[in-house]
Amino acid sequence: MNKEDSLQFVHERLRHNHPLAREFRLRPAPRVTRRFAIEIEQGEAHVFETVDASFAVRCNQGSVWITHDGDPRDVILMAGETYRADRTDALHLFALAPSVLEIEFEDEVTQH
Questions:
Q1: What digits encode the pLDDT tens for the residues 53-111?
Q2: pTM score, two decimals?
Q3: Number of domains observed in the structure of the chain
Q4: What is the four-CA torsion angle of 35, 106, 29, 111, rounded to 10 degrees?
Q5: Which residue range is the domain that position 24 belongs to?
Q6: What is the DSSP annotation of 70-87?
Q7: What is the CATH number of the domain that holds 15?
């Protein structure tokens, strides 16, 4: 799976797992932790519209800037550091240098 496919999958699963999408279920679905490693170029930006406390970014190489809509804080991750979302507002990520990131979140187990 290439970077674009991986990021598209993450976005789709985060939208699917949004609390409003789960509101009408009788029983919670089983969940699994998913992790994706991606390389991003300096200056590359990504917005994750729907995140929750299970969403985390680990910077394995390089550095990234992270913020949420409406949050005055700026978070800079350097290699070896991790950020776990503490808000559900859209998360903005910007590569300050070429970076290798691990993106982690909880996802519902899907039945095929």
A1: 999 999 999 999 999 999 999 999 999 999 999 999 999 999 999 999 999 999 887 66
A2: 0.76
A3: 1
A4: -20
A5: 3-108
A6: T----EEEETTEEEE---
A7: 2.60.120.10
